[in-house]
Amino acid sequence: MWEYKIEVLDLQGAENSLAESEKQLDSLGRQGWEAVSFIPKVGKGDSWCLAVLKRQTRESQ
Question: What does the alpha-carbon distance between residue 38 and residue 8 come to, in Å, rounded to a whole number?
Fold first, then answer.
């Protein structure tokens, strides 16, 4: 079985926003989450990106 999660990545054009988003995704990857898809240009001024993630539930491992 899978569990799913949606994370908001705030990409306002600043280099540090991109670095923070990369750290956020790296941290989620270490927790077992993998990206399924990305939905760009949403939210305030089209500066957000939604990351759809999944990981196996503990029961199915």
Answer: 10
Kindly report the pTM of this predicted structure.
Answer: 0.78
Domain boundaries, the chain: 2-60
Interval 14-32: pLDDT, tens: 666 788 888 999 999 999 9
β-strand 48-56 against 2-10: which pairing, if any?
antiparallel
How many Cβ atoms are within 10 Å of 7's Cβ, its own excluded?
16
Q: Give the closest residue to 34 by CA, choosing from 46, 22, 26.
A: 26
Burial 19-53 (b: 16+ CB within 10 A, else e): eebeeebeebeeeebeeeeeeeeeeeeebbbebeb
How long a stretch of residues is the chain?
Answer: 61
